[in-house]
Amino acid sequence: MGCASALQMAEGSMKSIVLDQGDLGQGASGVNAGTLSLQIKRVKLMPYAIRGHQEWESMGDAVGFRKTGGYTLAFTDHEAELLHERMSLKAEAGAPIEFVSNSVLTKAEPHLADRVVAASYCAEDGYANSSLTGQFYRARLKQQGVQHREGFKVLGIEACNDGYVIRSASTTVRARKLLLSTGAWLKSLAALMDVDLPLQARINTVSVTQRLPMLTRSVIGHATGLLTMKQKANGTLLIGGGWQGRGTPEQGRGQVDARSLRSNLALARHVLPAIENAQILRSWTGFEANVPDFYPLAGKLPGYEDVFILGCVRGGYTIGPYIGKLMGDYILERKTELPLFDPGRNFVEVLA
Where are the domains of the chain? Predict the structure, then answer.
């Protein structure tokens, strides 16, 4: 998101520099499953997700973009009711989602479990290779003449006469305006400016299997939202769904929780029985930040005119390139195509 904002500002002739505590794209952007599915996006964020899809599609092979279509499955009457309710709302919000019969599903995906009660389909669903994200944006920043410094861990931010001084262990950078776009690390960074954000971090788990015969060509999800699966061209199957690990952003990389992992894999096996004997090569975690109402922080940091914040975007991998462009326009004082999300709002927890 920060890189996309910087590129948009460069398009508007504003000079900027990107500072990253690690390598570009190696936080949440580089460790998630790369799923680009409109079926798992919140209704209010659907216009942003649709435009985010367009951004990813325009990046193409450089980010491993593939449009495969995707199915979301229900295995009980309760799950079917949930599926119909949620997908109908998302279709009304503009997502090209339809409900399909079992015969259509079985013809398209013959290896799925035969106990499906209801299924929805979105032709726009697909994925990108998240490990290419940093490489892509590093090249784009260089192309546009945007400076970037990796391994720059911010230890302090102080106001000065003409803006702010950002300090790391070995050097400082001066800037007239700041954009804080550090994902799950937003809370600690905002605290350097005496702002307490109501932010929590989830520790999502992703796993990858050994190479397998081709078992599915679509993105596969579950009505509860607790499963995503997709098989890459090399045969490996990526399994996610937001099952929780352990740890905090301040402690570094999170840890996989074996009990949570087993539940994730059991659901995957329930949906795709042919993976019963597949070996898991690796499981890992990534941090996802959210605030109580589960909508983004995108606007001015409360109490500051020239400090902006962008993060806590559910479905942030999909939406990130687009909402980053919106933020760039906002900082350039242009009219944004879609509204942003005031970080100073009153937060009311929304569970739906």
Answer: 1-67+126-193+297-352, 70-123+200-290
Question: Cα 335–175–330 angle (5° rounding)?
Answer: 10
Task: Give the pLDDT confidence of 143-171 residue by residue, as tens digits.
Answer: 999 999 999 999 999 999 899 999 999 99
Q: For 240-292, how does the pLDDT look when each residue is reduced to its tens digit (9 = 90+)?
A: 999 999 999 988 889 999 999 999 999 999 999 999 999 999 999 999 999 99
Which has the closest alpha carbon to 131: 313, 331, 250, 286?
286
**Longest CA pairwise span in the chain (Å):** 68
Residue 81 CB coordination number (10 Å): 14
Place of tokens 């999170």: 254
CATH of domain 70-123+200-290: 3.30.9.10
Rg (CA), the chain: 21
> Residue holding tokens 């931010």?
157
Pair of tokens at residue 69:
């279509």
Other beta carbons within 10 Å of 318: 28
3 state SS for the chain: CHHHHHHHHHHCCCCCEEEECCCCCCCHHHHCCCEECHHHCCHHHHHHHHHHHHHHHHHHHHHCCEECCEEEEECCHHHHHHHHHHHHHHHHCCCCEEEECHHHHHHHCCCCCCCCCEEEEECCCEECCHHHHHHHHHHHHHHCCCEEEECCCCCEEEEECCEEEEECCCCEEEECCEEECCHHHHHHHHHCCCCCCCCEEEEEEEEEECCCCCCCCCEEEECCCCCEEEECCCCCEEEECCCECECCHHHCCCECCHHHHHHHHHHHHHHCHHHCCCCEEEEEEEEEEECCCCCCEEEECCCCCCEEEEECCCCHHHHHHHHHHHHHHHHCCCCCCCCCECCCCCCCCCCC
pTM: 0.94
Residues 1-67+126-193+297-352, CATH architecture: 3-Layer(bba) Sandwich (3.50)
